């Protein structure tokens, strides 16, 4: 499908195989960033931004050669700091119709964005006032089976949560 999220994935894919990016590919990413520092899945201002699209956009920008200290990545990190839950993790959105509890998927891809930006997701900069860290929040969602729950309130193994958690940890 022809969506902004597909564009983000295309930039990541091309960068991962060291292929040149089309002219304007990075500008499309930068132009779609919302005032709060995040991105929406469709790249518009009319749709609420989310942690997942933001994580992939940050990774795509860095893979395309944008510096982690640049304006777009710095604004995204500020967005993450502003909606981080006390346990150290993140929801899909805040506010959100899906709730704002930490979920493994959003926390995992956010950790991947932090790592891409040179941040330590277990370090002091991402430790909350009550001592929560992104890594600890994600680890708390791992079940005895080794799989990960989507949220603490939905404790069963979730395949997507597990697939996204493993590279983050």
Helix-strand string: HHHHHHH
State the secondary-structure class.
mainly alpha
Give average pLDDT, whole number.
97
Shape: globular
Number-wise, the strands total 0
Helix content: 40-55%
Low-confidence stretches: none
Q: Which sheet architecture does the biggest sheet show?
A: none
Task: Quote the beta fraction.
Answer: under 5%
Report Rg. Answer: 15 Å
The number of helical elements comes to 7
Give the termini separation.
30 Å
Account of the 3D structure:
It is a single chain. With 169 residues, this protein is mainly alpha-helical. It is built from seven helices and no strands.
Keywords:
7 helices; mainly alpha; single chain; 44% helix; 169 residues
Short overview:
This protein has helices at 4-16, 25-31, 51-63, 71-83, 104-116, 134-139, 159-168. By secondary structure, it is mostly helical.
List the helices and strands and how they pair.
Blueprint lengths: L3 H13 L8 H7 L19 H13 L7 H13 L20 H13 L17 H6 L19 H10 L1
Helix pairs in contact: 1-3, 3-4, 3-5, 5-7
